[in-house]
Amino acid sequence: MKVVVALDGSPEAFLGARWVANLPLSAVDEVLVTSIVERPVLLGAWGYVQAPAMAEAYAEAWELSKHEARRVVESGAAVCAGSGCTVRTIVREGHPTSELTALVGEVGADLIMVGPHGRGRLESILLGSVSQSLLHAMPTSILVAREPVRAPERVLLAFDGSPHSLAAARFLAQFPLPPGVRIDVLAVVDGLHSRYVEHGAADLRDLIALERRGAAEVIQQAVEVLEAAGRTAKPAIRHGDPKAEILAAVREFKSDLIVVGARGVGGFRGMILGSVSRAVSKAALCSTLVVDHRAGAGKQGGS
Q: Is the distance from CB of 230 to CB of 260 less than 8 angstroms?
């Protein structure tokens, strides 16, 4: 597996590095710790850099920013090295979102890790907004790291049968997790009442039973993928708003990682994820892994 860890010097951003350190990786896995430095433009825009003193101050500030970025990535690399994987560092200049997207493509990363919030001493790198921008651009699978930082013990996979959610199941099946991890596979059925008349059910109980049978058939796809990889998977079905039900399930199951496809709407029309992935990643109290449908297994280490 190839992982990019994006840092900006803030404590929240370092959650990604700490996450890596707790995963069962090996020497075949590669982690690239990076920080993106955006050149200040305010002084130039006002024309003050023409004055020698201001130009010198500008140059010193720019060098200081690059120095701080190098210090940050070295600190992050030291944290990641505890996992036993191969660790490299890189500092790039430019806009955080575009540079991270380009870097992911250049190295063929399977996953990028970011913090939920940002703004460390490298003030131009705002990982809070960058993480949401990356989720929108979706250059690869993205893990938004939050506390608790440990190898996951309980994982919640939100599944709707779409190609994106099936990719999430396959990615999770090969993701480096500790032995004995429990995976709850959740299907959320939405819009029961709007289809009550359409199905011609005798009463709402009949429609609920019909929906649950359909959801059970869909969710079995994910269970089979996970169990074929030696994972323990338990199906769960809920009715209601997908975002609310996913977050409620996280609390009930005490999940420390949510896994969801980047987009949704599978063949079973009542189950809709779609933009839910971005909403959940923003509101969740635990880490969230949003999987792009193009994600491959990569060279996975661990079990």
A: no
